[in-house]
Amino acid sequence: MKEHTATLCGLRGPTDHCIRDQIVSAANDHFSHYGYGKTTVSDLVKAIGFSKAYIYKFFDSKQAICEAICSRCMNGALEAVGEAMRTAGSASEKFCRLFDLLVGNAAKLFVNDRKLYDIAVYAAAERWPMRRKSARCCARSFKKVAKMANLSSKPRWMNAARLST
């Protein structure tokens, strides 16, 4: 097992431990039913069936568990964005796909699982570290598309002239 060397995002203990995944999955189910604001770690202990000390072996806090849930969601969304960016041809097509994915995922979460959407609201309001990571990834994707659009909008002779100098 790999040992977790830093308390990045409140994680503790071994990084590739199946118990961590069990806790995150069970917490995800619990939060989707009761919401983040109305749930305590004690509630999770009852729902999951582990002791509080055992949960704290893997996570610093309720927020750390939620950040792990958000990280899972974000990683899935980033994979979809990466695939869309690779397969789209033009800059405008890339922008449309990027926008559709970001807005579509947020709308789907808002409509289909309002309680989990509330976690994102808490993350933004309380400035959780994963919120900044998500914003940086989105900004990077938009910058790539903007850079591509800028280059593709110039006449070919300008690009050729730049290459020859």
Automatic annotation (TrEMBL):
Domain (HTH tetR-type) spans 17-77
Molecular function (GO) terms listed? DNA binding
Q: Which UniProt keywords apply?
A: DNA-binding, Transcription, Transcription regulation
What Pfam families does the entry give?
TetR_N
Kindly indicate whether the keyword Transcription belongs to this entry.
Answer: yes
Does this entry carry the keyword DNA-binding?
A: yes
Residues annotated to bind DNA: 40-59
Task: Please give the PROSITE patterns that the UniProt record associates with this protein.
Answer: HTH_TETR_2 (PS50977)
Q: What is this protein called?
A: Bacterial regulatory proteins, tetR family
* UniProt source species: Sodalis glossinidius (strain morsitans)
Q: What is the lineage of its organism?
A: Bacteria, Pseudomonadati, Pseudomonadota, Gammaproteobacteria, Enterobacterales
